[in-house]
Amino acid sequence: MATIKGNPVILRSAGLEGGEEGFGLVEALIAIFILALGMMFVGPMIADAVQNTSLSRSKDTASLAAANQMEALNRLYRANPGDANLSIGNHGPVQVEIVNPSDNSKLNRYNVSWTVAEVLDPRPGKTLSAVQVTTTATPIGAGTAANLTVRQNKVVSITTIFSLRVP
């Protein structure tokens, strides 16, 4: 026992009481195993989240391309219902590039095509002055071939009916 200025001091080892052995190798290995097991389950979830984000962006931009073509055709129908682009049948494709407005980077490219079909009137002897229009946006790669990478690109179609209001 040591004495400091008349007070007895008992010296002990740092933090360990009798019978304690500390954090051993077995406990460390178990902790590493549990951590590795958790990462095995979390890793694929992160990869799925990244792919789903890419797929969502692709669907959004494809919908934007198809909707823009649909709006252009609607304006054309209002101005000139007999235009060749509105004749019954398949039309296109037109290449559309979606660009990020903040930095002008290319987000996606699409071939947008449209089909115009007749709308039949269920009433006998009546004729409708209307057409059914379906626009389809197909993702393309660097050239003009379809780019249908699984879980990254999707074909989007939008259908509506154009009709002139007759007084």
Per-chain topology:
Blueprint: E1 2-4, E2 7-9, H1 25-79, E3 89-99, E4 106-118, E5 130-139, E6 156-163
Describe this structure in words.
With 167 residues, the protein is an alpha+beta fold. It has one domain (25-163). It contains one helix and six strands. It has one helix at residues 25-79; strands at residues 2-4, 7-9, 89-99, 106-118, 130-139, 156-163. It has a four-stranded antiparallel beta sheet, with helices on one face. The longest helix is centred in the first third of the chain and has 55 residues, at 25-79. The model has no long low-confidence stretch (mean pLDDT 81).
Index terms:
167 residues, two-stranded antiparallel ribbon, 6 strands
Please compute the radius of gyration using only Cα atoms.
34 Å
User: How does the major sheet shape up?
Assistant: 4 strands, antiparallel
What's the arrangement of strands in the largest beta sheet? 3-4-5-6
Roughly how many Å apart are the termini?
112 Å
How much of the polypeptide forms β-strand, as a percent range? 25-35%
Order of helices and strands: EEHEEEE
